[in-house]
Amino acid sequence: MGKVVGIDLGTTFSAIAYVDEKGQPQIIENRQGNRITPSAVLFGGKKPIVGERAREKSVSDPGNYESFVKRHMGERNYIFTAQNGDTFNAESVSSLILSKLKQDAEYRLGDKIDGAVITVPAYFSDPQRKSTQDAARLAGIPVLDIINEPTAAAIAFGIMKDLKHHQRIMVYDFGGGTFDVSILDIDEDQITVIATDGNHKLGGYNIDIGILEWAKEEAESAGFDIENDLKALQALMLQAEKAKKELSFEDETSITIYIKGEEFSINLDREYFEEHFVNEIVGRTLSIMQNAIDAANLQYSDIDKVILVGGSTRIPKVRSEIERVTGIKPSAEVHPDEAVAIGAAFHAVDVARRKAEGTFDSGVESKSEETLSIDKASLPVLDKNYTFRDVTSHGIGIVAVRDDGSYYNSIIMEKNTPIPKRIIRDDYQTAAEDQDAIFLQVTQGESEDLKYTMILGEAELKLRPRKYFVKIRVIVTCDSDAIIHVHAVDFDKSFDNGNGTPLGEVKINRDKFNMTEEELVAEEKRLHRLNIGD
Questions:
Q1: Rounded distance, CA 217 to CA 230, Å?
Q2: Which residue in 487, 361, 376, 350 sits closest to 420, CA to CA?
Q3: Per-residue pLDDT reduced to its tens digit, 459-507
């Protein structure tokens, strides 16, 4: 019959969950018996190794070890090269992590995975979301939906706490590699995201790096050449992470590594840890939190509860600083490592049912909706479910030309617009008479200054030259996955055939950031041959 699952594809650790026949959420343990799996891959053997064993072996083989690949999603120029010369892009590495989760889940459940809701940071861009979809495809996982991590946590909170009245919550999601904050309204059966903000390269990893650099300098002062010892550097990286975790519960810890057979050890206490490695990072998260509050036009006094998500929220200084700034004692009512996967699992059941019925609406008229091949009767019955509306994490627009000939970012869909959403703009036109084409560039960003925007994709629209300025219709759609779809139409020609069918329509080429269909097909075949180890 198959199962549907929720997957939290994390920067440092990942988790997978499902809803059992009694309607209860369950985290699926991996084959090593652990509830979370390191998002780490070790290459160099007959087949890649993923998870705990990859981390364990990384010290002896650091040149073949890759982690934190989530930070490189949507970066087409990112390539990891194993020591045997094999190369892997971010989608390929992520797909190996997803394959591990899928295989472990099928082993534990004794059933195949028919589909998954996969979560991403709320502040992920369009290319990063598309890369996540592509990674799942490479792993052989049908994607039911892509939702934001804070929204998934809010679903878990609402269902597991069985809320009966309205609450306005702030989800502070501080993970290993990313940070998000979202402000949401939760009623009995509806979640509405008001505003979101974040930084996809800010997380506990930044604290680890601070500890590593400090310990490395201390080691060099003691006469150890650690910079040119990859094995020692990798061991120190793992020790830095361990120290961070221990100082969340202890007043002091020690870091011990061996450099070319000699022991180096140093102590680190919580006061020094917080002052030198935590305060600046947490300060940056608090600034982002304030930006979200401002975008929502709210005060902290309007917030009923602050929900903590992500392993880095275990650091005491994080919790105390949130309380100091907001005046609200942060809630630990959801599991920081598991809430996101659990919320995604609840949503997976709802989406699977609607896709099986053919009633799921992605919000894109031109998108062919998939009817899932699953026995609806096999899906668990939920006592409670949430419908929700997320928001765009970035503004979307096009490059336009002013009357003085200067170029600027013309925003069509503002940041924090509720999605799915479709916006039609008919106020664009060609820059000159007799123009036979326009070069369309789709932007992401909130500023009119192109220096602060990202070009998401480009396309050329051929025109029939005319002795006047031709009106251009631009349609921007953000679907339920927060993936952007842009169409441009020669408005003068759009009704020439008399039945309203647009002519001269183009879609955006996003090959600048994401894999092409041909590349995906070829990589699917290559990865299928590789398989993965336990």
A1: 15
A2: 361
A3: 888 888 888 888 888 999 998 888 898 888 887 654 444 444 444 456 6
The three-point CA angle 128-129-131 to 5° equals 65
CA distance 300 to 42: 44
Judge contact between 176 and 311, C-beta under 8 A. yes
Cβ proximity of 83 and 64 under 8 Å: yes
Residue type, 226: I
The residue assigned the tokens 């992520």 is: 94
d(CA 15, CA 157): 17
- Report whether 68 contacts 12 (CB < 8 A): yes
CB 471 within 8 A of CB 492: yes
Complete DSSP assignment for 413-454? E-TT-EESEEEEEEEEE-SSTT--EEEEEEEE-S-SSGGG-E
Q: Is there a contact between 307 and 269 (Cβ–Cβ < 8 Å)? A: no
d(CA 100, CA 55): 14
**Residue 94 burial (C-beta neighbours within 10 Å; 0-12, 13-18, 19+):** buried
Q: Which helix H or strand E contains 119, and what residues bound it?
A: strand 113-120
49-50 vs 40-42, strand pairing mode = antiparallel
Q: What is the DSSP string of 298-338?
A: --GGG-SEEEEESGGGGSHHHHHHHHHHHS-PPB--S-TTT
Are the CB atoms for 18 and 4 separated by under 8 Å?
yes
Residue whose structure tokens are 């194993």: 82
For tokens 């600046």, name the residue.
280
CA–CA distance, 62 with 157 (Å, rounded to integer): 39
Task: Name the 3-class secondary structure at 114.
Answer: strand
Q: Where are the alpha helices (DSSP H) in 330-410?
A: 339-357
Show the tokens assigned to 271.
């006061």
Give the Cα separation of 409 and 87 in Å (integer).
Answer: 36
Does residue 295 sit in helix, strand or coil? helix
Burial of 437 (0-12, 13-18, 19+ CB in 10 A): exposed
Flag whether the pTM goes above 0.85.
yes
Give the pLDDT means over successive 10-residue stretches in the chain (534 positions): 92 97 95 97 93 96 96 95 95 98 97 96 93 96 95 93 88 96 92 94 96 96 91 96 96 95 95 97 98 97 97 97 98 94 96 84 57 73 85 94 94 94 92 90 95 91 85 89 86 51 59 92 89 65
Q: Which letter, b or e, does each residue of 365-384 get, where b requires 16 or more Cβ atoms within 10 Å of its Cβ?
A: eeeeeeebebeeeebbeeee
Pairwise CA distance, residues 413 & 444, whole Å: 10
